[in-house]
Amino acid sequence: MATHTHEEVELGIHGIMVEFLTPEALLEAAEKVSAAGYKKVDAYSPFPVHGIDKALNAKTILPWLIFGGGLSGGIGGFAMMIVANYHYKINIAGKPLAWGSWPSFMPITFELTVLVASATAVFGMLFLNGLPRPYNPVFNVEGFSKASQDRFFLCIEADDPKFDRLETSRFLEGLHPHSISDVPL
Question: In what order do the strands lie in the sheet with 152-157?
């Protein structure tokens, strides 16, 4: 949940949102907003816009979480097979127990690596995106429902350190958007 200063809460503003008609215009605006030093910025579009994350300087730890999940799944699967062979010693066809039969452990190790990595990807993405989020102040903006159809939006939040209502509005007007709106709380 975003934190707002007392003045911003009195004004009832979450941020300022601009609307664009093309993904290229959104991408260009995102690059200019990042270059201007704004940090608390989000983009909304009906489909993924290639390069928007780089333009907004968006960083995520999700790849590292997935790597850790896959690594722990693989190590856990291998360890599970070692423990099972140690506790349930069944000598079949003269094959060695535990460490000597490690090639037979690879299918389970691989499967658990993939299972835990993919589960980490799904649940990590949901957690890092703050989902499920049944309400967001941007839903109150007139015409924002077009973000799932054919419009592209960029919102600078009021709790951005560089945010000043008048200066930010002037800056965003210079990006030549289709429309500009205050986002009420």
Answer: 41-44, 152-157, 13-20, 179-184
- pLDDT tens-digit map of 107-135: 999 999 999 999 999 999 999 988 888 88
* Domain coverage including residue 87: 62-128
This model's pTM is above 0.85: no
Single-letter amino acid, residue 115: L
The span from the CA of 70 to the CA of 47, in Å, is 29
Contact, 76 vs 116, CB < 8 A?
A: yes
Question: Considering just the CA atoms, what is the radius of gyration of the chain in Å?
Answer: 25
- Residue 152 pairs with which residues in a beta bridge? 20
Q: Extract the tokens encoding 34.
A: 């990042």
* Token couple for 14: 């979450």
Let me know whether 169 and 142 are in one domain.
yes
Are 173 and 147 contained in the same domain?
yes
